[in-house]
Amino acid sequence: MRLACGLSVEATAAGAVPGEACLVFVRPERIAVAAGAAADMGTGALPATVTALAPRGGLVRLTLALGEQALVVTRPAHAPLAGLAPGQAVAVAWQSRQARVLPPAA
């Protein structure tokens, strides 16, 4: 799937029509995030920028900019976040089987 920002991702695309708009959904806890360049994270990783970190009890909610799209990632509050801070460049990735394609919002 090609995202609106121009990046490509793999996703389960049952019912997707080539060339048609769609949404790619990945559960926030299934997205890996690491400080550094996408190339350092491996094949399929995408570059993003941290825009916010918000503690939510047992979780930390990270809001990232992936191109012009917002991406939400959650991590357990006890998980090391390697000093992530707003404005920091990060890499994100997920297993392709974790991504689903949905029809565009009406």
Task: Describe the fold and architecture.
The structure is a single chain. The protein has 106 residues and is mainly beta. It is built from one helix and seven strands. A five-stranded antiparallel beta sheet has the order 2-6-3-4-5. Strand 3 (46-56) and strand 4 form a beta hairpin. It is globular and about 40 Å long. It starts with 22 loop residues before the first strand and ends with a strand. The relative contact order is 0.33.
Features:
mainly beta; 5-stranded antiparallel beta sheet; two-stranded antiparallel sheet; globular
Instruction: Please state the overall shape, judged from the principal axes of the Cα atoms.
Output: globular
**What is the tally of beta strands?**
7
Helix-strand sequence:
EEHEEEEE
Distance N to C terminus? 20 Å
Helix-strand makeup class: mainly beta
Mean pLDDT level: 82
Largest sheet: 5 strands, antiparallel
Query: DSSP strand (E) fraction?
Result: 35-45%
Q: Largest sheet, order of strands side by side?
A: 2-6-3-4-5
Question: Whole-number radius of gyration?
Answer: 14 Å
Total DSSP helices? 1
Task: Report helical residue fraction.
Answer: under 10%
